[in-house]
Design a protein that fits this description.
Blueprint lengths: L5 H11 L3 E5 L3 H13 L4 E5 L1 H7 L1 H14 L4 E8 L2 H10 L3 E4 L6 H17 L3 E6 L11 H7 L3 H11 L3 E4 L16 H10 L4 E3 L7 H9 L2 E6 L1 H17 L6 H23 L6
Parallel strand pairs: 1-2, 1-8, 2-3, 3-4, 4-5, 5-6, 6-7, 7-8
Helix pairs in contact: 2-4, 2-12, 3-4, 5-6, 6-8, 8-9, 11-12
Bound molecules: glyceraldehyde-3-phosphate, 1,3-dihydroxyacetonephosphate (13P) and zinc ion.
Length: 284
């Protein structure tokens, strides 16, 4: 199957009141794990590439590997740019065949974020590519910020309304208490804020930094309108666990396939669990 757009997946997720997992890929094993998990659960899936992934694997490798996987897959696959940093990069991704892009203008002032997002939308709309934008700042778990800075980084519901009215993005990433990476404690999500955003904003909401968020909180977020859930760190953890287990048992192992094979299985397992949690299993 050719890549499907994020819009198509989000429309179905909205109608069915579930979320679709967006899993970060960095190499062939991760792409295979994502697709195998989605096929096993009969779920639509989003494969996404971050700045780090593009730097590591190269844009054309990511597109070629994911395209092959999607063509052979029995489930719909969307290829999405995660945290796109510039207009130029988004254009490169569209040209290479991505079916969806995120333009992350969250560090900009509202007006500038709107302007940049609209510039991307003009082109993306013309070629049938979906667009996710971000409002509020989703930082990393390692960021050393004060409580008031943390509060200030959250998405303002009124601003979200203005942003969506003036752009018309297909999905909006919001800051409601999650962060990228491994949490030190248990993250606390601001559900009131999420409910308010949802009340004012009629587009699918995206939850970033979702690895390590308790299952109950994920279920509640989906109930409140989250339709795309980003997972990277949990995949990394599963990968390293798989590698470490093999090497602990056999420190002299030199066959990469015997090391990466079990790592791939571990990643597939966690991705299947997440798909079931998000409610997209059986929706392909
Ligand atoms: O958005 C954050 C993702 O975890 C990607 O991180 O740029 O290190 O691949 P990365
Ligand atoms: P985690 O690594 O915390 O799961 O976050 C992933 C993410 O939001 C990618 O955009
Ligand atoms: Zn993110």
């Amino acid at each position: 199957m050719a890549f499907v757009t994020l819009k198509e997946l989000m429309d179905k997720a909205e109608a069915g009141k579930y979320a679709v997992g967006a899993f970060n890929c960095n190499n062939m094993e991760i792409i295979q794990a994502i697709i195998q998990a989605a096929e096993a659960e009969k779920s639509p899936v989003i494969v996404q590439a971050s700045q780090g992934a593009i730097k590591y694997a190269g844009l054309s490798y990511i597109v070629a590997m994911t395209r092959l996987a999607a063509e052979e897959a029995s489930v719909p696959v969307c290829l999405h740019l995660d945290h796109g940093t510039s207009f130029d990069q988004v254009m490169q991704c569209i040209r290479q065949g991505f079916s969806s892009v995120m333009i992350d203008g969250s560090k900009l002032e509202l007006e500038e974020n709107i302007k940049l997002t609209n510039r991307v939308l003009d082109v993306a709309r013309a070629v049938g590519v979906s667009v996710e934008a971000e409002l509020g700042k989703i930082g990393g778990t390692e960021d050393d910020i004060t409580v008031s800075e943390w509060e200030a980084s959250m998405t303002d519901p009124e601003e979200a309304k203005t942003f969506v009215e003036q752009t018309g993005v297909d999905a909006l990433a919001v800051a409601i208490g999650t962060a990228h990476g491994q949490y030190k404690g248990t993250p606390k999500l601001d559900f009131e804020r999420l409910a308010k955003i949802r009340e004012l904003v009629p587009v699918p909401i995206v939850l970033h930094g979702s690895s390590g968020v308790p299952d109950d909180a994920i279920r509640k977020a989906v109930e409140l309108g989250v339709r795309k859930i980003n997972i990277d760190t949990n995949i990394r953890e599963a990968f390293v666990k798989g590698v470490n287990e093999v090497l602990a048992k056999n420190p002299n192992e030199i066959d990469p396939r015997k090391i990466l094979g079990p790592a791939k299985e571990k990643m597939t397992e966690i991705i299947r669990e997440k798909i079931r949690l998000f409610g997209s299993g059986g929706k392909a």
